[in-house]
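Batch manifest, entry 17 of 40.
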Amino acid sequence: MRPAASLDEYQLDMRALRRAFDRASKTYAGAAVVQTELRTRLIERLDVVKLAPERVLDLGAASGQSTRLLKLRYPKAQVLGIDLSEAMLREARREQSLFKRFDRVAMDAQALALKDASVDLVFSNLMLAWCNHPDQVFREAGRVLKPNGLFMFTSLGPDTLREVRERFRQIDERTHVHRFIDMHDLGDALMRTGFLEPVMDTERLTVTFPSASALFREIKASGSVNVTHGRRAGLLGRKALQELQTGLESRRTEAGLSVTLEVVYGHAWRGSPRAPRGSPAEFAVPVSQIRKR
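Output type: structure tokens
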């Protein structure tokens, strides 16, 4: 049975999402190769900003690798790792050391139980790709950020896993790959929610796997499975699975099976309101907090 017509088939089932990441909590660190690479690149982008945060929020912390790196980078800051999966955050304890400890709290990025203007930096690696309402995530990030606070993130664009999407379309009409949001739409959402002149860019990465089976094993082990409402109710049949693997394997070269990732990078400052009575709202960011890349 297909989902009701009124329900967006690409809407994510958040309960299924939490269960998927709970199940993957013990295998995530070893399987999340792409997440690790993008985390490194996003951390490096902090080099271009002058920031000495007192409180840092790692939004979508998973099993704590990025939270640990943020604590190492800002040892005097209070670093808080937030994730929807409690099992992931339990695994994050392994990333702490005696003198490099951080806090961990399970909560929804769309409804942060944090005070207004209480955070200097919100860091988020690929979490937005798992949210139904980016606008609400941006509103919450903006709410908890102090004036002149920074939001820095990665996400995935529409070309991500296009090879897999195309092969699935030849099998059935169900949703098998998420609908990832375009860079320009994310930039517009930042503007709508009060962030200043967001800086957005994108790049396409080619990731190679030894086989189609290896690709799907990594997806499952990292928790990055299909949780759209339009997904199949049961497992893919043996015949359909064989067709899918055969189709993907036909693209394999000596180097392996290559798939595309469209990576979106973004950062924006939370403005400092200066709205004298009777004048339009204005926002300002100190020049001292911006350096040339």
